[in-house]
Amino acid sequence: MSLARVHLGSGRSVDLCELRMSSTYGGLLEGYPCKPLNDRTIDWLLRSAERAFPGTPVHLIPPPREYPDQYAGAFGPVEVLPAVTCVGSFRSEALDPAHDRSLYRSRLTVVWFQPSPRVPSGCDTEPSLRDLLWERLAEDEELQRPPLGLVPGARGDGPAR
Prior knowledge:
The structure is a single chain. By secondary structure, the protein is α+β, with helices and mostly antiparallel strands. It is built from three helices and six strands; from the N terminus they run ββαβββααβ. It has helices spanning 35-52, 127-130, 134-137; strands at residues 4-7, 13-23, 58-60, 84-93, 104-114, 139-142. Strands 1, 2, 3, 4, 5 and 6 form a six-stranded mixed sheet that branches. The model has no long low-confidence stretch (mean pLDDT 88).
């Protein structure tokens, strides 16, 4: 069961299976939002997503960057990303029409930023997320089947519990 279904601009529906949200600047104790800090944050998010969802392609939706009229410090001008970082694991039907729909699905992990902590759903989601080029970014995976003969109670290996 998915958390939400997102309808992409291409017409494909994708299921959000897992979502991790956090405050973009929640851990900022010192300094100010600037390009070097934001670039490190994005790199860390991508590496974290790769570790959390191994073997799944990871895609970053480039975040909008705002430059408020504030004093530029030692690291350059103030640069602000949207308030909420999101890492989502998405699934959909297989990409390759030759794949059996009951044995394959496509998958993609997406990193994006949004202004508020809202779960994307249906057509009511960030435009940048709806514009995902799923067919180019996702990949198919074969679903795992349980090994034959390891079902308790099967083939006389004892009673089923």
